[in-house]
């Protein structure tokens, strides 16, 4: 399994409130994370960093994940703990009041991948079945699309596009979407913040992910394209590629 992580401030924002990375547990299994912080005076980066640091620490102490049930329970338990940490901090520190972070996280084993998300950071998969968004945005416009009030095309340019309905740390408890898929040789996972998905079309993502370049080049090209399309937001992504042992390189 190979993986690459990239984050970029973008062309407009003064600070990068995104965080992310790819981490290994005691058995070398991967946990990929993208977190997009928000709220308060630079408090968004505090929220996303707290979420990332908590999961990274817990994952580093974790033994081998053997089943999908174990992976889903790990994600649920540790993300809920992270929510409490962020929420408590926001109540104690006035500068951090109201802060929160979106999150998409994927536990990647050699047999399956379990994906959890809160907010509008996304996970896509590219495989023999095509290109598919695995996560649902917890956003106002997605709810309007789901209930038939606006079209998917209208949602792309809706003035309330950035309103998130669910985030880590903004409430005492959080509802997390979790699902497990089979991850096979040659499949690619793309985790990203909305700084990428709002600026790069799915058709452009497919062309770049299918290109005959390595993961580093794919990641750099995606970020460059998001910036060329305006780069109004921070841009963060992780690409994970599953390869059988005879083909895998060093990766992360």
From TrEMBL:
Organism this protein belongs to: Cytobacillus solani
Domain PPM-type phosphatase: residue ranges: 2-242
Entry cofactors: Mn(2+)
Catalysed transformations (reactions): O-phospho-L-seryl-[protein] + H2O = L-seryl-[protein] + phosphate; O-phospho-L-threonyl-[protein] + H2O = L-threonyl-[protein] + phosphate
Keywords: Hydrolase, Manganese, Metal-binding, Protein phosphatase
Keyword flag Phosphoprotein: no
Keyword Hydrolase carried by entry: yes
Gene Ontology molecular functions: metal ion binding; protein serine/threonine phosphatase activity
Name recorded for this polypeptide: protein-serine/threonine phosphatase
């Amino acid at each position: 399994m190979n993986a690459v992580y990239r984050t970029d401030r973008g062309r407009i924002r003064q600070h990068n409130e995104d965080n992310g990375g790819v981490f290994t547990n005691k058995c070398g299994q991967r946990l990929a994370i993208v977190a997009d912080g928000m709220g308060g005076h630079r408090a968004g980066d505090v929220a996303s960093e707290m979420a990332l640091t908590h999961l990274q620490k817990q994952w580093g102490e974790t033994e081998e994940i053997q089943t999908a049930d174990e992976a889903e329970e790990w994600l649920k338990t540790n993300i809920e703990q992270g929510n409490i940490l962020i929420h408590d901090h926001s109540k104690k520190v006035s500068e951090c009041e109201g802060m929160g972070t979106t999150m998409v996280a994927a536990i990647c084993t050699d047999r399956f991948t379990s994906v959890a998300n809160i907010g509008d950071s996304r996970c896509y998969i590219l495989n023999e079945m095509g290109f598919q968004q695995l996560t649902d945005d917890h956003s106002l416009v997605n709810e309007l699309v789901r209930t038939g009030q606006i079209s998917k095309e209208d949602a792309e340019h809706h003035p309330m596009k950035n309103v998130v309905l669910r985030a880590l740390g903004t409430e005492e408890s959080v509802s997390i979407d979790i699902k497990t898929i089979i991850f096979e040789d040659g499949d690619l996972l793309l985790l990203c913040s909305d700084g990428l998905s709002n600026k790069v079309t799915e058709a452009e993502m497919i062309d770049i992910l299918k290109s005959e370049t390595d993961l580093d080049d794919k990641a750099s090209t995606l970020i460059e394209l998001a910036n060329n399309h305006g780069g109004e937001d921070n841009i963060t992504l992780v690409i994970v590629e599953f390869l059988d042992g005879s083909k895998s390189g060093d990766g992360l």
